[in-house]
Amino acid sequence: MLNLKDINILKFFAVVSLSVILAACHSSNNDDGDVFVPTVGPQNVQVVSGDSDSSAVQNTISWTLDPAATGYVVFVSNIPGVTESSSVVVPSAKGFDYVTHSGVDVVAGTTYYYAVQALSDGTSSVLSAEVTGTPQQSKTDKALNDVAWNGSNALIAVGDTGVILSSPNGTADAWIDVSDAGIPTSLAAVTWESINNQFLIVGAGGTVLTGDGTVWESKELGLAPAPNLEDVAWLGDSYIAVGKNGAIITSNNDGSSWIAQDPGESVSSITLKGVASDGNLIVVVGTNGTMLTSPDGETWTALPTIVNNDLNDISWDGNKFGVVGSNDTILTSPDGVTWTSHIPGTPDITFVAASQWDSSLPASPVLGAVGSAGTFVVSPDATTGFSVPTGTNQQLSGLTWVDNVSPAYFVMVGNDGTVLTSQLQ
Question: 179, 229, 331, 345: which could join 243 in a potential S-S bond, CB 3.0 to 4.6 Å?
Answer without folding.
Answer: 229
